[in-house]
Amino acid sequence: MFGLPQLELPFFWTKPAPDKGNGARSGSSQRPSGSIPEEPRTIACGGQEIRYVVRRSARRRSLGLQIDTRGLRVAAPLKARQAEIDRLILSNTAWILAKLREWQRPEYQAARAWAPGDPIALLGSVRPLRIAQGRAGLAKFDDALILTVPKPDDEAVVRARLRDALKAEARAWFAGRLGHYALRYGVDTPTLRISQAVTRWGSCARDRDGAHRVSLNWRMIHFEGRLIDYVVAHEIAHIKHMHHGPRFWSAVAKLYPDYADARDEIRRRTLELPNI
Ligand SMILES: [Zn+2]
Questions:
Q1: From start to end of 90-190, where are the E strands?
Q2: Is the distance from CB of 162 to CB of 276 less than 8 angstroms?
Q3: What number is the average pLDDT over the span 87-92?
Q4: Nearest Cα to 18, choosing from 77, 63, 79?
Q5: Number of H helices, E strands in the chain
Q6: 202, 210, 222, 270: least surrounded by Cβ within 10 Å?
Q7: pLDDT(10) > 60
Q8: CA dist., res. 83 & res. 147, Å (int)
């Protein structure tokens, strides 16, 4: 079904588009998610009115449905026609309604609010975040994190610069752990891509030339290194096993013996992630 082998480790549900996987080049820089315009829409679906948003992107080659606490989103190529989008939604009504119901459960509605000034967890260590004026950057001290931004009073600017800083921390940390597990597994270190879509922890894909690329969600940088290591080991094991069969899990177990506990814990703790 997929154009290229690709496996995902979901923490929010994403319905894969029929032919996804051949769009993004490894290492390409991504736009901040806030810069993609969202078009609000409604559609009558299974006897009820459903609100959703369309997010168009030049990098998108096919339509995809995503559902999380924010509701239904349709990722679309720039030129996708509304009739195609309607058809996709109407042909997946049962799936959409089931997932929307699932997300209405109270435990999912509790996703943690974050406001500038709240403490930040970085690799499991929670520190107060102080915000100061200056050239954008993040300084780490034992007892505090200091974020400098050009406009400290502008909440949107603070959030955007904080996301940038955390992504940079994530990239540096993930690159080291990816190299570590690739060496242990006896494979070339795959290209690292930092993902920012709130759709999955990680994924592993093979390009046409046979090189692998691993996408890792920067939000994991809030978690302890041992949890990040589980996701890294999981994706590295996919380099030899592009499935979730017994041979895949035995490869994961060799790289990361306590994988079952880590997998449960990271699932449980998804709601701790701040919505920066
Ligand atoms: Zn997997």
A1: 120-122, 125-127, 129-133, 137-140, 145-149
A2: yes
A3: 90
A4: 63
A5: 7, 14
A6: 210
A7: no
A8: 45
* Rounded-to-integer distance, Cα 222 and Cα 269, Å: 11
Ligand 1 center to 7 CA (angstroms): 5
Whether the Cβ atoms of residue 55 and residue 36 lie closer than 8 Å to each other = yes
Centre of ligand 1 from the C-alpha of residue 234, in Å: 6
- Distance CA(190)–CA(202), nearest Å, equals 13
Instruction: Identify the residue whose tokens are 């195609």.
Output: 84
87 CA to middle of ligand 1, Å?
30
Whether 27 shows a pLDDT value over 50: the answer reads no
Q: What's the whole-number average pLDDT of the chain?
A: 82
In residues, how long is the chain?
A: 276
State the distance from the centre of ligand 1 to the C-alpha of 235, rounded, in angstroms: 6
Q: What is the pLDDT of residues 223-268, one digit of tens each?
A: 999 999 999 999 999 999 999 999 999 999 999 999 999 998 988 8
Q: How far apart are CA 194 and CA 171, in angstroms?
A: 7
Name which residue leads in pLDDT, 158 or 28.
158
Report the pLDDT value the prediction gives residue 268, as an integer from 0 to 100: 81
Residue 69 CA to ligand 1 center (angstroms) comes to 23
The whole-model pTM stands at 0.64
CA distances 162 to 85, 180, 200, Å, are: 34, 27, 21
The rounded Å distance from CA 202 to ligand 1 centre is: 8
pLDDT band, residue 111 (cuts 50/70/90) = low
Q: How far is the CA of 233 from the centre of ligand 1 (A)?
A: 10
- In the predicted structure, residue 18 carries a pLDDT above the cut 70: no
Query: How far does the centroid of ligand 1 lie from the alpha carbon of residue 238, in Å?
Result: 7
Burial of 38 (0-12, 13-18, 19+ CB in 10 A): middle
- Return the half-sphere exposure (C-beta side, CA atoms, 13 A cut-off) of residue 217: 21
